[in-house]
Design brief:
Among the domains are: 56 residues, no CATH class; 62 residues, no CATH class. 20% of the residues lie in helices and 21% in strands. The relative contact order is 0.04.
Length: 284
């Protein structure tokens, strides 16, 4: 309900003269306080615009300037042309400029407008683009790459692959050649050849070959015959026993197994049983 609605409500009710004057004073006081509060916030929010628009002589020009400025992200993007002012559009990787009343832009450090298209701004990163190194059209040759806007050679042992220095012996995206990309769940480049780090020849890391009969489980060599965490195959864990063990690739309980009593391959001869003498894991 507005202050005017409150005033109309007071005038339409049954009130004594003193009550009416008191209520009207409260409503009017609230309205005045609200106006001052809004004006204070507006002054704080448009301080920069006020300073900028103060340069216009006529009040109509200042009012127009304030309207344009209030919708502009920053006063640095405003451009004055005689008695008129416009808000210049933001340009990627650039700073807006105003020259003789016309909006323009200057590329930020390390960028350039090499395609001449103002719509995409300064689209080229001349600090690292080997085809536009330091300036548009400056191409790095002779196996060089662009670094900090300068054409430089790749470090020893690396090859320039279309502007990127790569170690062809270990780079998974440039393995053996600049265009060879290794794929798979766990790809790697081992000695310039693509490899799978889940394989027994490169288990977890290049060159880590597992012994014969072992599996490669989550990057570690595992003996499926005895590994209690990978019994028979990767991921099979022996847990449902008092004394769990993996014997010949099968989970068993060393406390009660008559064929693996206390250790794999220890067999109790009849009439003995494993733990029968009261001691788990001992034939009796």
């Amino acid at each position: 309900m507005s202050y005017f609605d409150e005033l109309a409500k007071i005038l339409g009710g049954n009130h004594t003269r003193r009550q009416m004057l008191g209520k009207m004073a409260g409503v009017v006081g609230g309205a005045v306080a609200g106006v001052f509060a809004v004006s204070s916030e507006a002054r704080a929010a448009t301080a920069a615009c006020t300073t900028y628009c103060r340069t216009f002589i006529l009040s109509a020009q200042r009012n127009h300037c304030m309207t344009v400025c209030s919708g502009c992200p920053s006063t640095t993007m405003l451009c004055k042309n005689g008695n008129n002012v416009t808000c210049c559009a933001a340009v990627p990787n650039a700073i807006t400029t105003c020259v003789h009343g016309t909006c323009g832009f200057a590329c930020a450090n390390g960028f350039a407008n090499c395609d001449g298209n103002a719509a995409n701004g300064c689209e080229t990163t001349i600090s690292s683009d080997s085809l536009n190194c330091g300036a548009c059209g400056h191409v790095c040759t002779g196996g060089q790459t662009c670094f900090n806007s300068q054409c430089v050679g790749c470090p020893q042992g690396q090859t320039n692959c279309s502007g990127t220095c790569a170690d062809l012996t270990s780079d998974v995206n440039h393995c053996g050649t600049c265009t060879t990309v290794c794929t798979g769940t766990t790809p790697a480049c081992c000695g310039s050849a693509c490899a799978d780090l889940a394989s027994t020849s490169n288990c977890g890391t290049c060159g880590n070959a597992c012994p014969n009969g072992n599996n490669c489980c989550t990057g570690n060599c595992s003996d499926p015959v005895t590994d209690v965490n990978n019994c028979g195959s990767c991921g099979v864990t022996c847990t449902t026993a008092i004394t769990p063990a993996c014997c010949n690739g099968s989970c068993t309980d060393l406390s009660i197994s008559p064929f693996n009593c206390g250790g794999c391959g220890i067999t109790c001869t009849s009439p003995q049983t494993c733990g029968g003498g009261g001691t788990p894991g001992v034939c009796g």
